DNA sequence: GTAGGGTTAG
């Protein structure tokens, strides 16, 4: 160690360099000490490089002396000539034999041949390819010592080497301390930033380059543009991207294949698929990466069909898809979502021998999770290499179905393999705990997020906030919100909906106003997300206040906000207000129509629902699956059997919409309530959902109404088999037996319920007093404060027996 | 006979 310090003191290094290189050397020393067979060097300065030579030989197990090399013979001919050594090293490096290239370099040093700047240039790239920072640092020492640092080729090589090894700050330091810079050194540094995802830094440096350079036209070239486009893509900066595009055309650099590819990527990452496709179509020459970039553009923008179409076109043009292409089309299949296409591409991936790449494996895990097929997702995970991203894909998959125990088990596994979790890991873990409100587990995830310094990250924070709100710990949610370093619109929507969920309407509005003050302009998106939050929790008072704010901003009649208002009012039972907003909207899309149709249906306005549906068809719009949920719901409510059958057939046959569980349950309800119990039972069995408890419950309810014994027993058996802990089934079944005076069976069911500890779920009611929810359970008087008693008294005076008044905020679920 | 910088995929 003393020798190293001595070596460093002797040179004219800046102090920062010294301490950093010292640190790196120290790690080399520690590694050497760990490998007990190696002794520490003892004497002169050149030994510095010997450190890393030993380390490298340990790490890479290069057995140079025992291997015969094809170029080995040449050594005898060229002897101690630096050129012959250098070309030997270079030739091996070019063929990808990086270990061997390094061995030749070490041999050359041993033979006391002095390297020149070309040798360093080549060997830096070798250490970069091996991504061996220790070798690189030792080379850096040697370069400083031998005085080659001022050479442009050498210094730019070091910039790239450090950034590829993950030491971006060291790369910048070299860049800053370079006495002379040329286009390549600038480009190397800009590329280093954009490749590391430090897009802002990349663009800053780009503008510095424009200011600093004597003539920027001499400095900016196709390399600069490619990196800058990548930075714009990372930030979603359309404006800068567009101006770069214009300039690339002016400079005549747009025909470069890298510039073209990065332009396409920039436009598609900014969401402008039209421009991306135009650039793609206008390119004179395309390579595999160009095609992959365009396919990716489509699949990232949820245009799965177009992505797959391009995949076939690419092959018609004679391009052979590679692993990247397969990762893209798998993602496209997940985005549609089309599980048949996904499985087909999986098979193609296997056949083409591309299934072993970790990117492809992760795409498979992700795809199967999105199909809710965790069995195949786990299988794909088991067959792929493990890294943090593949683990994240698995964890996120579990979170989609709320399987937090498995998610946590995967987390424990990745920790046991010494992997470092990132923001995606924690986002997945929190949302896996949210669905079933797994409080203790989520709190542990919180602790771990602090351990890894990710608790104030905005995406981690948002999912943590959502988790606490779901668990009813609104104070913790607020704390989380406050600790997010840079809250975004989603963060605000999250905390506002958290308040709404927990019956704190006043707070929800307070935070909405806060958000209003902080950001200069509230956009459509934030309004509609807040309205949605309030709608789901039937917070009418707050919704009205928000509506007033919306009118002030003039956003009331826009599609998103208008539809959200329609939805909010109808969910709060104020369907006339929904209609007022709906009829005022100058432009409506299918979402707006759906909101109104479903709103009418859910509030019992069956005739209006069906009339509005006809109006929608007349206006030329194509109904969606949501539209038919409203229509069928109205039919079931109104007892319109024939109409229900017709609408169902219209949906499936004329519009090609596959029936969902909701549609089928509605149909069972329509048939069952009208007494067509045999038809209803057949419908359930033939439907795509014979294993869903909900659809059988619907049939069971109908059997209870019509006192249908045989079908009722069969339906109840299905319900018990699929959901053995649901108290409602036991109660209905016991009623069915009771209606036939089968008292033994009734007693048996009651006993069974006792044995299985199944209790009848109590009914809850709640009222809204000055924007605070007060929940009641039958028989519980602990919540009767004076204020509550007063409100209840007022309400009782106005209410008729057995009729709940929805317009005055009194609900009974 | 030898040398530095760029685009796509989870």
UniProtKB/TrEMBL annotation:
GO terms for biological process: RNA modification. PPR repeats lie at residues 81-115, 182-216, 287-321, 387-421, 488-522, 589-623. It comes from the Eukaryota. The keyword tRNA-binding does not apply. GO terms for molecular function: mRNA binding. Keywords: Repeat. Gene3D superfamilies: Tetratricopeptide repeat domain (1.25.40.10). PROSITE patterns: PPR. PANTHER family: OS04G0514500 PROTEIN, OS07G0578800 PROTEIN-RELATED. This is Pentatricopeptide repeat-containing protein At2g13600-like.
């Amino acid at each position: 160690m003393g020798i190293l310090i001595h070596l460093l003191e002797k040179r004219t290094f800046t102090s920062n360099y010294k301490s950093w290189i010292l640190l790196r050397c120290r790690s080399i020393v520690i590694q050497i000490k760990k490998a007990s067979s190696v002794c520490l060097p003892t004497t002169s300065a050149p030994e510095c490089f010997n450190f890393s030579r030993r380390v490298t030989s340990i790490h890479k197990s290069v057995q140079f002396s025992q291997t015969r090399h094809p170029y080995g013979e040449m050594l005898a001919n060229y002897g101690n000539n630096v050129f012959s050594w250098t070309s030997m090293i270079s030739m091996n490096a070019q063929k990808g034999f990086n270990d061997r290239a390094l061995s030749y370099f070490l041999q050359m040093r041993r033979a006391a041949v002095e390297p020149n700047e070309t040798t360093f240039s080549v060997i830096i790239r070798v250490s970069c390819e091996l991504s061996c920072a220790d070798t690189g640092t030792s080379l850096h020492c040697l370069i400083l010592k031998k005085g080659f640092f001022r050479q442009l080729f050498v210094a730019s090589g070091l910039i790239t080497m450090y950034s590829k090894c993950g030491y971006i700050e060291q790369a910048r330091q070299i860049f800053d301390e370079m006495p002379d810079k040329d286009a390549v050194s600038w480009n190397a540094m800009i590329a280093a930033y954009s490749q590391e995802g430090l897009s802002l830094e990349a663009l800053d440096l780009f503008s510095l380059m424009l200011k600093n350079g004597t003539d920027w036209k001499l400095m900016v070239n196709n390399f600069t543009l490619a990196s800058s486009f990548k930075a714009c893509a990372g930030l979603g900066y359309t404006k800068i991207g567009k101006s770069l595009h214009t300039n690339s055309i002016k400079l005549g650099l747009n025909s470069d294949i890298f510039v073209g590819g990065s332009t396409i990527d920039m436009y598609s990452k900014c969401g402008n698929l039209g421009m991306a496709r135009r650039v793609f179509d206008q390119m004179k020459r395309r390579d595999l990466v160009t095609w992959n970039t365009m396919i990716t553009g489509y699949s990232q923008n949820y245009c799965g069909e177009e992505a797959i179409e391009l995949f076939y076109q690419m092959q018609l043009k004679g391009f052979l898809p590679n692993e990247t292409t397969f990762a893209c089309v798998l993602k496209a299949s997940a985005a549609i979502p089309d599980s048949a296409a996904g499985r087909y591409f999986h098979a193609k991936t296997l056949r083409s021998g591309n299934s072993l790449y970790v990117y492809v494996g992760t795409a498979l895990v992700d795809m199967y999770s999105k199909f809710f097929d965790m069995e195949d997702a786990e299988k794909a995970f088991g067959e792929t290499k493990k890294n943090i991203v593949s683990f994240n894909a698995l964890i996120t998959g579990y979170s989609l179905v709320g399987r937090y125990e498995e998610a946590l088990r995967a987390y424990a596994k990745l920790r046991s393999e010494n992997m470092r979790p990132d923001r995606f890991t924690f986002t997945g873990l929190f949302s896996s705990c949210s669905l079933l409100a797994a409080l203790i587990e989520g709190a542990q995830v919180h602790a771990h997020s602090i351990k890894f310094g990710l608790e104030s990250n905005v995406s981690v924070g948002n999912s943590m906030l959502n988790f606490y709100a779901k668990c009813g710990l609104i104070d913790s949610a607020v704390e989380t919100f406050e600790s997010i370093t840079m809250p975004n619109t989603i963060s605000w929507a999250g905390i506002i909906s958290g308040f709404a969920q927990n019956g704190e309407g006043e707070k929800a509005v307070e935070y909405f106003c806060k958000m209003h003050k902080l950001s200069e302009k509230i956009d459509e998106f934030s309004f509609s997300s807040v309205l949605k939050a309030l709608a789901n929790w039937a917070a009418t008072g707050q919704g009205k206040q928000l509506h007033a704010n919306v009118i002030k901003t003039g956003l009331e009649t826009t599609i998103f906000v208008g539809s959200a208002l329609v939805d909010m009012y109808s969910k709060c039972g104020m369907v006339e207000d929904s209609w007022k907003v709906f009829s005022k909207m100058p432009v409506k899309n299918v979402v707006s129509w759906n909101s109104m149709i479903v709103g009418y249906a859910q509030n019992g306005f069956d005739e209006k629902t069906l009339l509005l549906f006809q109006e929608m068809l007349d206006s030329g719009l194509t109904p969606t699956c949501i539209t038919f949920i409203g229509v069928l719901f109205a039919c079931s409510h109104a007892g319109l059997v024939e109409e229900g059958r017709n609408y169902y057939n219209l949906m499936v046959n004329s519009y090609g919409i596959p029936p969902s569980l909701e549609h089928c349950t509605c149909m069972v309800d329509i048939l069952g309530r009208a007494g067509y119990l045999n038809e209803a039972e057949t419908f359930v069995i033939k439907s795509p959902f014979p294993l869903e408890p909900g659809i059988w419950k619907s049939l069971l309810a109908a059997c209870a109404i019509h006192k249908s014994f045989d079908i009722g027993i069969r339906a109840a058996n299905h319900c018990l088999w699929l959901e053995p802990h649901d108290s409602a089934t036991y109660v209905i079944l016991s009623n069915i037996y009771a209606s036939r005076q089968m008292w033994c069976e009734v007693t048996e069911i009651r006993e069974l319920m006792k044995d299985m500890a199944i209790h009848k779920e109590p009914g809850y009611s709640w009222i809204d007093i000055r924007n605070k929810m007060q929940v009641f359970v039958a028989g519980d008087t602990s919540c009767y404060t004076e204020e509550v008693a007063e409100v209840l008294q007022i309400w009782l005076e106005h209410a008729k027996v057995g009729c709940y008044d929805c317009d005055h905020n009194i609900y009974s679920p």
